[in-house]
Specification:
The protein is an all-beta fold. Helices cover 0% and strands 57% of the residues.
């Protein structure tokens, strides 16, 4: 069962969301749980989007409660306001996010800038098939390799809540 989400944020790199749910459910069923996330990713040009703009790949690792060690992988067009990223847990369960990234200030002399992200849609597989996140937006720092802003490194973290059916292991 997909639920409509009211979302405020995430960038893979990363990534935060609004999808508050009601009270606690029986053990094993969907229930809201504490959630903490941190990730480090690289982004770089790998080709061209349909629009002709540079296509960026996002690749990294992280750790999150309920996922453990995870991989981060996705794509974004440099001229678009959105991209996509997938967090994959060691057992293969995934959380997939469509995101928008917002710089909170101009890059400093070292090429770094504060950043936040906004999740626009969230889906998943396995136990995260009906995943929802509580309030919060990942925040962190982005470092650009050069003034083009097309490649670099990003680190983000989030403290929020997550709701999913821990007993559901479908893929």
């Amino acid at each position: 069962m997909k639920r409509s989400l009211r979302l405020l944020g995430v960038f893979s790199l990363v990534i935060g969301m609004i999808g508050a749910t009601g009270g606690m459910a029986a053990a094993g069923a969907e229930q809201e749980r504490p959630f903490r996330f941190s990730q480090q990713s690289e982004f770089y040009v790998i080709g061209e989007c349909e629009s002709g703009a540079p296509l960026q790949e996002i690749s990294g690792t992280g750790h999150a409660t309920h996922l453990g060690r995870m991989t981060v992988f996705g794509h974004a067009c440099a001229d678009a306001e959105t991209g996509n990223v997938t967090w994959t847990a060691a057992n293969g369960d995934e959380i997939r996010i469509v995101f928008a990234t917002v710089l909170l200030g101009p890059p400093g002399p070292d090429g770094s800038a504060p950043v936040t992200t906004h999740a626009l849609a969230v889906t998943g597989t396995g136990r995260f098939a009906d995943v929802e996140f509580g309030e919060g937006s990942p925040t962190g720092t982005i470092w650009f390799d050069d003034m083009s802003g097309l490649s670099g490194h990003i680190e983000t973290e989030l403290i929020s809540t997550i709701t999913y059916d821990a007993s559901d292991r479908r893929n």
